Amino acid sequence: MDQVPGSPHKPQDAQGGDGLPGCSRHPDRPTGVRCTRCDQPICPECMVSASVGFQCPSCVRGGSGTGHAPQATAPRTIAGGRIATDPRLITMILLGLNAAVFLAVLATGGTSSWLPSRLDLVGLAADPSQFRLVGVAEGEWYRLLTAMFLHQQIAHFAFNMLSLWWLGPPLEAALGRLRFIALYMLAGLGGSALSYLLAAQNQPSLGASGAIFGLLGATAVLLRRMNYDMKPVLILLGLNLAFTFLWPNIAWQAHVGGLVVGAAVAFGMVHAPRDRRTLVHVATCVVALLAIVAVVWVRTLQLLG
Length: 305
Fold this sequence. Notes:
With 305 residues, the protein is mostly helical. It has helices spanning 57-62, 69-73, 89-107, 114-119, 143-146, 154-175, 177-198, 209-225, 231-246, 252-270, 277-304, and strands at residues 48-49, 54-55, 124-126, 131-133. It folds into 2 domains: 1-75, no CATH class; 89-304, Rhomboid-like (Rhomboid-like fold).
C-alpha cells in the first residue's frame, strides 16, 4: 500500500465517516489510535507494538528516539502476533476449505449422501427398528469439527462465506495468523458444543455460522479495545441475533456458542499484559477448549444415562 505523500512525522487528521481521523497510510480507515512517537493516526494493520503503546511503520524503520533495535526487526500486531505480508492468507484458506467441502457435497448428491450424514453434528437418533446412538454420542467427536465446514444450501454457504471474507482479514491483520486460526476454530467448536448440548437429540446441525458469529464477537471486542465507535458492530450483531431467533430452522445454539467463545478468546488476546502475553493467550485458548470438552462430555453422559 502506497504511503500518503508528505513528511512521515506530520500527523494526518483527515476525518473518517464517524469523525475519527483517518490512518496516515490508509486515509479511508478511521482510527482512534496514534503513534506514540510521531502522533500519526494508525489503523490495526499499521500498528507495531512498542514498549509503550503502538508505533507506525515509519518510526519503527527509522528507530527514532528509542534505540530498541528488536522493535524494527520484529514488529507485532496489537495482540502480539507477527505482522504478515498478506493479512488475508488464513481467511482465503478457510474459504477454500469450505468451498471444497461444499462442492464435494454437491458432487455426492447433496444432503442425503453419505458425506454430510457422516460428518454433520448428531447426538442421538431414533431408528425405526431400534434406538441407537450415532454421531458424537457414539464417540465420533470429529463431527464437532467437520460440521463447521458443511453447508446445506447455496444461500447458507454464500452468506457465511461473505461474512468470513468481510470479518476475517481485519481480524487476521490485528491478531496475527496463529491467533486468528485459534480464534476461528475455538469459536466453531464452541458453537458445535452448545448445539450438541441444547439441540434435540435427533437433530443434526451443520455450518460455519458458529465460527462466523465468533468472528463477529471478536470484532466487537477488538473495536472496543481500539476505542472505535461501537454502534455499527452492535447494530449488526443485534440484527444477526434477531435473524437467528426469528428465522425458522436455524441452529441458534451454534450461533450463541460461537459468539460467546469468540468474544471470550478475543478478550484474552487483546487485553493480555505485554510481559505475559503469550502465557495469557495460551491459557485463554486452553481454558476455552477445556470448557468445550466439558460441555460435550456432560451431554454425552446425559445421553448415555
